[in-house]
Amino acid sequence: MRWCTMIVKVKENKERILAGIILVVIGVLSRITFTNLLSYTPPLYLTLNSITQPLFMLDVFFVVALIAFLSGYLLGGYYSFIIPVSVMIISDILLGNTFIFLFTWSGFALIGLIGYYLQTKQYKGVRHLPSILGGSIGSILLYDLFTNFGSWLGWYPPTIEGLTICYIVALPFMLWHLLSTTIALTIVIIPIMYLQKQGFSIPAKKLSIFERKAPYVAPVLLIILALALHFV
Hints:
Blueprint: H1 2-12, H2 14-37, E1 45-48, E2 51-54, H3 61-75, H4 79-95, H5 101-120, H6 129-155, H7 160-197, H8 209-231
Antiparallel strand pairs: 1-2
């Protein structure tokens, strides 16, 4: 009987499952591909607090951020965090990561949560594009604030000065994250909105109360785990 129930649930969710698998595959392949391509640093510089550094530090953040946001905005529920975390786990096995990997995983789960929150508010259609981009920008700032806090804990002096230097050094990454992700999301989300208006979308499914709460709980648990492992 349990197997029958599981089969029925899979059939009911086949569109979401297929879309989730596609997003994971795209995320993993894109992260691996762009990691080898984005090795160039534009010759633009900024100076803050006597620290001179490039204006942008190119990385592949926008790839996983876009996948995370879309997983929450299009699929919602468990997919909001399972998809971005799956992309990171698989690609980290191939590419490697640092000891703050749990900070990055939880950061992407937060981005998925913001996408899911916007979905629950029915932000669809071009007239909601500013709200969607605003939510995306907010999620990027949350990601950078939290992951750089993890960097401070591991690589910088445990002082206010160390924290300040950490965030200043991280500015080129944050500026690139904001620019690249906003451009990528705009390019992708407008056609999606058009297709939604034409009636092409993943069939909505009524989520259980547990699945509705899971996108909020999962990032919190990952954050607690990341901090706990650091201080243990």
